[in-house]
Amino acid sequence: xxxxxxxxxIALAATGAxxxxxxxxxxxxxxxxxxxxxxxxxxxxxANPDIEVVFDGPAESYAxxxxxxxxxxxxxxxxxxxYLGLNRWRILEARGLTQPLDPFIGDASAFAxxxxxxxxxxxxxxxxxxxxxxxxxxxxxxxxxxxxxxxxGGSMEDFPTTFDGVIELAARIDALGDTVDGIWVDRHxxxxxxxxxxxxxxxxxxxxxxxxxxxxxxxxxATLYRRFADEAGMKSYIDDQARQAFPAGTLxxxxxxxxxxxxxxxxxxxxxxxxxxxxxxxxEDPGAVYFPTGGSAIVxxxxxxxxxxxxxxxxxxxxxxxGAQIVVENTGYAPTNxxxxxxxxxxxxxxxxxxxxxxxxxxxxxxxxxxYAYPGAEGVAVTDLIAAALVEVTEGADPEATIGDLADTxxxxxxxx
Amino acid sequence: MRPLLTRAWRETVTDMWLAGPATLAMLVLIFIPxxxxxxxxxxxxQFGARSFxxxxxxxxxxxxxxxxxxxxxxxxxxxxxxVIPFSMGLALAVALGLHRLAAWWPWLSSLLRAAYFLPVAAxxxxxxxxxxxxxxxNIGLVNSTLAAIGLPGxxxxxxxxxxxxTLAAIGxxxxxxxxxxxxxAGLSAIPQHLYDAAAVDGADRGWDRFxxxxxxMLGPTTLFVAVITATNAFQVFETVAxxxxxxxxxxxxxxxxxxxxxxxxxxxxxxxSAITMVFFVVVVVLTLLQFRVLERxxxxx
Lengths: 417, 301
Known about the structure:
The structure holds two protein chains of two kinds.
Chain A: H1 2-18, E1 21-26, H2 30-47, E2 51-55, H3 62-75, E3 81-85, H4 89-94, H5 102-105, H6 108-113, H7 118-122, E4 125-126, E5 129-130, E6 132-138, E7 140-144, H8 146-151, H9 163-174, E8 181-185, H10 189-198, H11 216-232, H12 239-248, E9 251-257, H13 261-268, E10 275-277, E11 291-292, E12 294-300, H14 305-319, H15 321-331, H16 338-342, H17 344-353, H18 355-367, E13 368-369, H19 381-394, H20 399-413
Parallel strand pairs in A: 1-2, 1-3, 8-9, 11-13
Antiparallel strand pairs in A: 3-12, 4-5, 6-12, 7-9, 7-10
Helix pairs in contact in A: 2-15, 9-11, 10-11, 12-13, 19-20
Chain B: H1 7-40, H2 58-65, H3 67-104, H4 106-121, H5 124-134, H6 141-148, H7 163-188, H8 192-200, H9 206-234, H10 238-244, H11 255-265, H12 269-295
């Protein structure tokens, strides 16, 4: 009897070893991601029958997602792998929760050949280590209302490609009437970093030991806010109000994230054809330009070697060309794998139907750069100080003095003195 | 048979059974967490971090000296100072009107009462979205109406000098219905013979009746309403979080929103705990005041 039991136990254990490895996946924003995640998991499990993907209930936003992951880290119930906002994985990295991916990546040149270019990898690197891989990307583009442009005597074919030209056109649109606005951009860290990047500036020095935006590029970027307000009558909308105004047809040009394309196109409906134009490049040397990339990234959290291997298979799949194709077709985000852009077999048909997406995604591919997160305990708090300073500038403060004061405030808050 | 325990002991055991579970729950769910928050408030603990340092009263000093911390405190006080008088004054006026109306047109009175109470019953977050649409500078109904009668529109939610008062107006709109119900209850509890007696003494018209009978008899209700309104106003959060997120440039930052922002957006759990303790003290003071009011409710009888 005893031997029989023992045999049964061994048999059970043996089946266990062959059973599927289960990986728990966390993601956020189900309104955008739920269907996409199901499609990714289905395709992945079809290709890897020995791994089972199980989803945690999705978090409502990236901010809430990070809160939950931090709570779970305290309780010891972290999932094995998680999708985060591209500007938020550093919060987990700073607490030692992310597993570096370099040991799994191995040979860098082979990895680059698989579509993971150095520019794309930079989105998830900190101090030379790969902690995250981007899974979807967006950057700041210009949404244009062609009808208002025509009414103001502008031309969509000959649309301005410099900020001076854009401001001049926006001023003419603004003059069309009391309820029509020329231009709007949010007074916000990411938007400021984008305008800064367009002038060839950077928020910080490469080693993150000092603030770098109090230079000519930073002052020029802040001056744009001032000129939008003074010359083109930019209103002090909060983001939701502007996102209502543009589809309603009362706002001519809106500088916003390319990820809102689907939402704007649907909301505008038959009123007008939402058209995307690339953000002007202001720097004389285009090589110095980059736009900080929004979107999502994937991080490995489990420290169990078996699960890590399964998670790595999953990460490679969702960031590879097949995964990128599913993400782009379902969400409208730009792809984060170079192969899908090089080979028309993946997305050629999609871009033929979605010329606006092609404009946005080409900009991401050409100028993708990291969305700087300020280091340390005050890192998130200072982004609200940047936004507040930009409010001051649009309401009449001197850009040069404001940017100088802001840089000094940030240095002392971030302990850079 | 002699009982196992004396009568006094049995009563003690019964008392323990009755009060014990609730007391234990309060201890575990309120007092211990408050104790932990109090300890966190003297550290620089970061949400999810592995370690922390003791920083003494630094967090409290920051809250009362840092411009942003001070702004949140001052904004909250302004908000409370605006909401309390307007919410109570309007509620009293509406209650008096509906109370009189009930005598000769009961169904209209009930209908209006329900209408005034709707904002209380509705989800504030959903209502905030409706307000956002109404207050839109270009396509909102409020500014369109103003334009139609020749008045200039305003940036209700993005003008730094105006946004706090816009939020206060929404707060008043939300609390008038609740306060009205409390005042109506107070009004219907005033015995008719007091009015008859006042009439005999010559106070038989509106204002005389109000000042000699209604207002004194409503005294305890008024005090109670004031404390309730103050407690609610100090906790203002939903409208700030959904409509302005404390902006623009911290112009509508309030104590509870700052608590949320510091703790759950910035992950500065130590500092957020200090804000929580200040807020806790305010709520405890208001609660004690409320107890005193309730105890003295019958002072005119």
